[in-house]
Amino acid sequence: MKGNREKNFLIVGVGNVFRGDDAVGILIARFLKRCFKENVKIIGVETSFDELIQFFGDYDLIIFIDAIKSGEKPGKIYRLKFGVDKIPAQLEFFSTHSVGLIEYIEIAKALGKLPKELIIYGIVGKDFDVGSSISSEVRVSCKEIIREILSEIGA
Amino acid sequence: MKDKAIKVDYLARVEGEGALYIKVKNGYVVDVKVKIFEPPRFFEAFLRGRSFREVPDITARICGICPVAYQMSSIHAIEGIFGVKVTEQIRMLRRLIYCGEWIESHALHIFMLHLPDFLGYDDVIQMAKDYPDTVQKALRLKKIGNEIIRILGGREIHPINLKVGGFYKLPSKKELRKLEDDLKWARDFSIETVKFLADLEFPEFEQDYEFVALRHPNEYPLNEGRIVSNKGLDISVNEYDNHFVEEHVPHSNALHSMIVGRGAYFVGPLARFNLNFDKLSDIAKEIALEVNFKPVCKNPFKSILARAVETLYACDESLRIISEYDDLDKPFVDFSVKPGIGYGCTEAPRGILYHRYKVDEKGTILDAKIVPPTSQNLKMMESDLWKFVATYLNLPEDELTWKCEQAIRNYDPCISCATHFLKLYIERE
């Protein structure tokens, strides 16, 4: 499958496969990687964003997918356009790294390396315990996000 | 400042999640708790029943910052059981990949996590606005460390190329040589970094620490050595359990490590520097002395300097190993599986990382014990805060809170690997 050739895009799945719903970003990215290969990156617990931000500016569109801890209904999907939508204060992008997703995006901004368009998909998770598996609510939302991302990149 | 409690719900800029609680009454510190919430020792349980072959890759997943350390400690422990002796070249390549991890981990902590404290910024985002060049260079330095891991570890995401007996596949001399220009740049930048950091203002603070690190007769310790301290400890790795104990503390379900009969101890870059200064490369020694940083340094805030000197050393050591490398015929040595207990201790970026495994005749894991460096430093962190808060009680409240967090960051606590989970609270009444 090809994305819109006009758009130079990158999809980044963020998470930790060992911590329940925190796996969601990685699972979606793994799925999309089968279709879009080099246009998909996975940021797991064993890696960090810093190498990526050097290249943020090379893209027209970057889409991040990450789990959110907010206490809201599990599976709820947020679509946030960086620089346009205000990131609601109650949202905590779940990260086992001290320098998390939003921080790295802010660093990229401070260094003048933002892509033309940056969209964050956040999925409210239920269970983030080490060793737990992804909840059924979040699993259901995965399908919807994949559909939205495909239309986002014009595939 | 009379009665008060400091509670910080979320301790920023430590790896993972943490919580700190300090209580002051009538002008005296009455309670300090670095809080840890540890789920069951997931990985230790998870490893039971697995083949020894899986252990390096499973344990690598415990920590995002130091996967190589977990692989190396587990591999050394298991090789101890089977009596594996690797070739000198495999040994050197293991040092090289470990150097890569030190470079990327130290670069992250120095610039992204700790330096903002010293320069008076809330975080690296604010710092990046005023110091874009430094942040760019820090990212480049970190990337060079990652690149070493990628070439030797087999892939970018996390290293999978290390195994009991050696490597699955080795890089060619040509591939490694490609790193040389970058590493020379990294060495120069590390020299610049040591000099820059030496001019920072360090809080006046010292304790009579027991520093613990590996010590090897011929080299600055990474993979091998005896466990030594500045207070007379000198043991082989398999004696670890006789000299170190883990104790439950009521305010946390994580374990605190102690030296039997003496209590808290200090592991990590400053401990290594203090105990192994003579084993640093010439350039690393020379630059450290030039900025008047020498052993025994008892100011934990200067850990950032030790980290920078070690980064310089790791770049220099990588260049040495690469220049001496020749293509190998066989990337691993053969061995036969046998039952037994094995012990491994290597120098993770944050300090000694101890693993112990018991396997049966098929090499199935019967029992696993993992003691990460951050658990070993926890008691020392609390001890520092007791003394630090008492000394600086007169500082304005927000400044004291900030300094307490900075004091914790001296240890570069990696909470995701120490406990796999931690929340930090500071509370003032």
Automatic annotation (TrEMBL), chain A:
Specify the domain of life of the species encoding this protein.
Bacteria
Please name the GO terms of the biological process aspect recorded for this protein, alphabetically. Answer: protein processing
Q: Which UniProt keywords apply?
A: Aspartyl protease, Hydrolase, Protease
- What GO molecular functions are on record for this protein? aspartic-type endopeptidase activity; enzyme activator activity
What the entry lists under Pfam families is as follows: HycI
InterPro entries attached to this UniProt entry: Pept_HybD-like_dom_sf, Peptidase_A31
Checking Gene3D superfamilies in the record gives: HybD-like (3.40.50.1450)
- PANTHER family to which the protein is assigned, alphabetical: HYDROGENASE 1 MATURATION PROTEASE, HYDROGENASE 2 MATURATION PROTEASE
Membership in a protein family: Belongs to the peptidase A31 family.
Q: What is this protein called?
A: Hydrogenase maturation protease
| Organism from which the protein derives | Candidatus Kryptonium thompsonii
Automatic annotation (TrEMBL), chain B:
A molecular function GO annotation: nickel cation binding
Which cofactors does it use?
A: Ni(2+); Fe cation
| UniProt superkingdom | Bacteria
**Metal-binding as a keyword?**
yes
Per UniProt, the keywords (alphabetical) are: Iron, Magnesium, Metal-binding, Nickel, Oxidoreductase
Which residues make up the binding site for Ni(2+)? 63, 66, 414
What is this protein identified as?
Coenzyme F420-reducing hydrogenase, alpha subunit
